[in-house]
Amino acid sequence: MDAPRWLDEREDRAWRGYRRMRRLLDLELARELTQDAGLSEPDYDVLSDLSETPQGRLRLSELADRMLWSRSRLSHHLTRMQQRGLVTREECADDARGSIVVLTPAGRRAIESAAPGHVAAVRRHLIDLLTPAEVDALGALTHRVVDHLADPGLRAARTQPATEV
Amino acid sequence: MDAPRWLDEREDRAWRGYRRMRRLLDLELARELTQDAGLSEPDYDVLSDLSETPQGRLRLSELADRMLWSRSRLSHHLTRMQQRGLVTREECADDARGSIVVLTPAGRRAIESAAPGHVAAVRRHLIDLLTPAEVDALGALTHRVVDHLADPGLRAARTQPATEV
DNA sequence: GGGAGTTTGTTGACATGTCATCGAATCTAG
DNA sequence: CTAGATTCGATGACATGTCAACAAACTCCC
Prior knowledge:
2 copies of one chain form a homodimer.
Chain A: H1 9-37, H2 41-51, E1 57-59, H3 60-67, H4 71-83, E2 87-91, E3 99-103, H5 105-125, H6 132-150, H7 152-159
Antiparallel strand pairs in A: 1-3, 2-3
Helix pairs in contact in A: 1-5, 2-5
Chain A binds a DNA duplex through helix 3 and helix 4.
């Protein structure tokens, strides 16, 4: 790693802008979500992913994978959400180790009443500020990066010390 | 809030892509940073912002504002970094309440040795995957959102209950 | 000058996330 | 079948972030 290629002015502007937007958008969306619906962003995400399945039920590991969370984190978080009556755990029929996360009626009500406001906030603070071309560009670019990061080669490098090609 | 305007297919693609990228990029950058430099992302950000000042010293509140962190969070974090010898606190000459955060030689070495690798990672996993047009678009769009979120009107809405216009 | 109100940074209690470990169940070879 | 390896989810210890409260210092303004 000799003479590092620093970011030029435009790249730096994009990178800093991205990080700043990230932070501010997070703060604002979380703030509105708590205020309007009494949910945290993680809460919302769990409920949202669950409610997208036909039965409102998902295997814990499956939910963790979709959310890109560790099973541990999800397990802890579910315990808290369970205490608030938003979800329940059920035993898994075909795999006795497994547990199935189930949306309770209260959980469904929570996400259904939170969603419109949250989507509106996402529009107000992000989507509606962009031109259609920018929306498409953002979609294209983020998916490219996601594909890159999900690449098996990278995954491998994370587990093995990696003998440089 | 009647009939909510949900996200259409393209908007949804952009929004999901953004969140997924956010998460994966975070994980990967944090992973490499810890492995290569023994720093967390928050550590890196603190050191980076400090090192961008001529003397490597900043008023705590000034640093907190730049980073968009609460003073409390920064204070806690500095305590930990101080224990690792990366920064020090000094008293502020013109304001006896204030404290000045100072980069130690070890802190400077840490950021200087971490920076090239980190920038390379940012390139590898983000910047170099984008076309020049996309870099510009990302810069433009993020700054627009940031300006919007930093808008005084919004700020006001956060403190006052706001009597709807 | 001096009291009311603000700002600054720290602190402790608590919420949340990470990491290593564990027991139980499942899978795989032989 | 069964011993060994793997996967699943829970858990406890710990790191990190948030929030409210606080003391000390500053600012206003009379």
